[in-house]
Amino acid sequence: MPKKYISMLGMARRAGRLSMGHDTALGSLREHKAQLIIFARDISPRLIEEFTVARDKYYNELEMLQIDESIDELHRALGYKAGVISVNDSNFSVRLIELIKQEENEYGSKD
Fold it and tell me: What's the pTM value of the predicted model, to 2 decimals?
């Protein structure tokens, strides 16, 4: 059974509320459009560090989460191959944060 937050990401994509991929996600962060940054499980630590530095410089209160899906799993679910996704809508981001944390509690914390 697919995780609820993956379905919600699909809805956000269809609504045009996601920036997918390094350059577009970083651009939305810099322009203060990003409400949430989501990283795939197998993204490089260097990329996470790059986004952390950018967040601290441009948009300190922005939440960033790493989910349990790989880049390939996100590709299959969303139809776009990206390891980093910016959610550019406050309603979608609030609900996604709730669903991701709910999944973590149900299935245990990721390491």
Answer: 0.92
